[in-house]
Structures are given as structure tokens and as C-alpha cells.
Amino acid sequence: MTNQVQDTFHTDVAPIKIGIVGLPNSGKTQLFNNLTGTYNVVANALLTTIEHKKTRCEINGQVCEITDTPGIHELLAQSYEEASTRDYIFSEKPDILVVCMDSNRLKQSLNLTLDLLELGIPIIVALNAIDETCRRGIVLDTRKLLHFLRVPVIECIALSGQGTDELKDAIINARGIKWEFTYGTIIEKGLSQIAQLLPSDLPHTRKIAALLLLNDSYITDFVKQFSKLTDSDLYKIQDSVRKTQQDFQGNITRVINNRRSQWVNDIVDEVVIQQSISPREYERTIAQMCRTPLTGIPILLFIVYLIYLAVVNCANVIAGWMDETLWVPVHTLINGWVGPGFINDFLIGDYGILSLGLANAFITVLPILSVFFLIYNTLEDIGYIPNLCVLTRRFFEKLGLSGESVMPLVLGFGCKTMATLTTKSLQSSRERYIAIYLIAFAIPCAAQMGLNISILGRMGLQAFVITFSVLIAVEIIAGMILNLILPHEEKGDFIQELPPIRLPTVKAVLVKTWYRLIWFLEEAVPVFIYAALALFILDKTGILMASKIFLQPVIEGFLGLPLQMVDALILCMARHEAAAGLIINLINKNLLDFRQCIVAVTITTMFVPCFANIMAMIKELGTARAIVMTLIINASSFIIAGCLNWTLILFFIS
């Protein structure tokens, strides 16, 4: 049994430090959830885990500190995420490594496992997704795999929790083994010489020497950070690396890789049993259709239309029913108990903590997000998102972005903050700046997307089409301008790894939806209440009315919106969902018409990225550049919304 241990947990015995490592999208986070009893988002997509997640728990009576790490293909790092995982292994010195081995990608998983075996750290292999392997007509001989690796191999189906108890037992009984893997006399001699020059306090010096020999672009920084080397010491190490490379007759990288590949292939030949007749893999056909323009674009449009119908015909109906059934009786009751005056205004007035705060969050916003997240989480677990990245890659290249930048942009439709943080993996500072700008500008996150659809759906499909056409056009123009004015850099090659298309399990989708809604309520409800309280104080002190009078020429004249939209713009600074809830209330009061609704959604989508996203922008760009970017985005949102308003007046709306 695993029990969650709070941060205040005290013990005289140091916890067992366990690191979960594996290929991207191999099931590491699900294993983490199973072992710790906590929940972190699991998705059939890359970059779901972008930072280390650490939790203390008890496993069979032993206190453990378990860390979930970003995906890694091998210790020879090719990205920031891979380097951070490797640095964790080298610097944190975990007692045990749980290797989440994807049974569908056995060769790649074995290549990583070989790297980890060479470190001498106790290892447990969790052979995950064996049910999918069996459905493809492939059987893995686990006993033979255990024989070759000489470490525990536990068969797992992480999504259903199968194998978790066996994995816990293996963790408690884990033991280290001495593992030797040689690359030939000349290479081994060079590795020994390089290792001797490395600082004595540096862990895994033989492996670090091998990474230096393979010209790892991140390892030198780690060595310099871990041990304060002088320029002279660093020069000696680099000179020894060059000498070993020159002494070797041939391509030393190719020889090392061939030696490793041979070891992997020998194991695969013995372990994998392929049936002569395998079931048809319809997943490949569906995936191909999703990323081919001829079929992928209609599929994308169908999905968007399906979301639109679900939000308009289901979420809005639920929200209306909850308002009539839950909020109206409460409002009537309080109104009867508390007569007109200060207390009434404070509780259920236009800026009341119950009306604009709690009711806005629970009655207006929550039902819409529930329906939207159910659909979005289903698409995520199917594996549609990475295929959408491939479909849109050529389009984004026109904006000066390589295929490497596509995933963060698409992830922005889920969470703009997480998407911004994933841009750290982009090698080009130019692409990183463009991607962060476009994510912050006119891309609505999942929560805002669902609410925007709900708002526009009340005005009909035409309002939805016009608004999102404008937002798409704005993104394209912004990307083209940035592509023109920013200095160009040389683009590197990029290969998009695609996860398999999977049928999602109902339980997994419901659990993820439940936790995302809980996280929304935990984060948003206090913000909704504080925002309502702030507006209440501003209203009672007269500051709000003074602001509205000052902004009246812009809000009513240029934007063509009612003055109440000032409240929505202020709420945007706290949380966009609160502003969207207020807009819905304005529609219900007949204060926004067709044209105004389009303009309102457009400006609130572009106006002021959420506070968490601004913090992520500061982290990736620095304070000055992030603030300048935010100011430019806010000014642009007013100009674009105003131009849209007058365009609608002159050409579309009588």
C-alpha cells in the first residue's frame, strides 16, 4: 500500500531516492501516479512532463522520494529536457532508477537502458504497455530479457495499474550490479585517460568521458557547474578528447553506436516473438489520415464543429439549468433575508462575492469547462495532438518557425503557461521569441477556448466563424511581421516523434477531467472572489466609474462596447475565465449584441496573458523583454478589436 506523505513528514531515516526515467510518452507519469497515489496529467503526447516532479510517499513501510522526469532517449542529450533528466541522475544520485520501458519501442528503450546499466545504479525495468504489444501480434519473452539485463523486469499495464504491487516489491529489494560494457582497446584506453582528468568529486566519470568523446553539446556545461574547473583543467580534458578521437582509425561515434546497436539487436532477436499473422493496425491508417492535408483538414474542421455543438447544445444547457435550479433560489433567498443596501450589494450585487465570485465560477464557468475538457482530454489520450502538429508544420514554417516549434504552439491550446515553458527546448532564440509571442497573443488556452465557444454559440455559428477567422488571421500576420523584423538564424533538422493512436479508456478520461476541474477550482475560485472584491471596492470608492468615464471614448466609441466591458478587461488581468463569465452574464442581460459579442471575445482573447503565463514569459525571456512583449500585445489587442468593430459596422452589420 502506498500512502501520500506530506511535506511536513519527519523521519530519522533518509528516504529512498527513486527516479523514474524512460522514453518520451512511455508511461512514466502514470507509473509515478500509481506508486505515489498522487495525480499528475497523463497524455498520449510528447512534452506532457517538462519539469521534474517530486513526491514523498511510503512503499511497503519504507519512506521514498520519487521523481518523475522528462523523457530521454539516451544519456547523449539532444535537447534541454534530456539534459535536465541526465543532470538529475548525475547530480541527485538516486538510489534506484525505475526504467519505464515501452514494450512497443523495445530497441529505443534498450538503448537507454544500456546507458543506465553502465552507471552501476540499482535498476528496475517496468515493461509497460505489454497489452498493446500483444494486440499487435508480438510477444516478449520477459524471462530472456531478465537474463540479458540481469535486473528485475516487471510486466506492467500502467493505465490500469497492473504490475504496481510487483514493482513496489522490486523497489524495496533492489540491489546494484556491476555491469561492464566495453568498446574496444583504443576507445577504452581513451575513456580511462579522460576520466582520470575529470574532478574526483564528479560522479560517473567513465560515462561522462564517453559523452565528451561523443561531442555531447550539454555535458561540458554540467561538468563546469558541478566542479569549478580552471580553464587549464578544461583545456587538458578537451585535448585528451581530441587526441583519442585522432588516434582512432575511423569514425569513433559510428563504432560506439554500432557496438551498442549490435547489443540491442542481439537481445531483440532473442526476446521478440513475432506472430506470422498480426491483426490489422487501423491506428496507423487513422494517424496517417489525421496528418495528411487532404483528409487531415476536414478531420480538424469536423472536430472543431463537434466541440462547438457539444458546448452550445450541452454545456450551455447545463449552465442554464444550474442557474435556474441552484443560483436563482439562493439569490432569491438572500435577497429576501437581506434588504437593499451595502450587505446585499456585497453578497449578490453586480460585484458581489457570491454572484460575480462563486456563482460565476461554479454555475457559469464550471459546466462549460466540464464538457470541453471531456472532449479535449479524449483527443489528448487518442494521440491526435502530435498528428495535428505534423499537419500544421508546413503552415508554421511560413511564419519562420521550424517543425520543432510546432508542438509548443499546439500545446498552447491546452495550457499557455506549459506551452511557454516547453519553448526552452528550442535551440533558436529567434524561434523561441516568435513562439512565445504567438502563444501569448491570440491563442486561447483550453479553458478560454471552451468559454469562447459558449459565448459565440449563443450568437450562432456565424459569430464563431468570424471571430476565430480573425484570431487566426491575427496570428498569421503577427508571425509574418516577426519573421520579417527578427534576424534570421540557421535552421536545424527536426524529426517529430509520433505516439501511437490509442482508444482512450473512459476511466482515464474521466479521472483526468476530474483533476483538471479540481485544479481549476483550487486556482480560480479564490481569484474569482478576490477579483469580485476588488471590483466591489473600486465601485464603492468611485474609482471604477471614474475609469469608465475616462475610457468611455475608447470602449464605447472605438470598440463599440458597453461600459460594463471595462469590468471584463479588469477581470482579464486576474483570470480570463472570470472575464468570460462576466461576458456571458452581459449577454443574458441583453447588453451585448451579435457584433459586440464578436469584438468582446476577440479583445479578451488577445488582452493580457494570464499571470502564470506572464511569469513563464519572464522565466524564458527575462523581465524586460516579457514586459515589453505584454505591453505590445495589449496595445495590439485594442487596435485590432477597434478595427474589427468598424469593419463589422461598415461591411457586415447593418
UniProtKB/TrEMBL annotation:
List residues binding GTP.
22-29, 68-71, 128-131
**Compartments, record wording:** Cell inner membrane; Cell membrane
Q: What is its main location?
A: membrane
Cellular component GO terms, alphabetically? plasma membrane
Select a single GO molecular function from the record's annotations and give it.
Answer: GTP binding
Q: How does it sit in the membrane?
A: Multi-pass membrane protein
User: Which residue intervals define the domain FeoB-type G in the entry?
Assistant: 15-177
Give the source's domain of life in one word: Bacteria
As for what it does, the entry says: Probable transporter of a GTP-driven Fe(2+) uptake system.
Protein's UniProt name: Ferrous iron transport protein B
Q: What is the lineage of its organism?
A: Bacteria, Pseudomonadati, Thermodesulfobacteriota, Desulfobacteria, Desulfobacterales
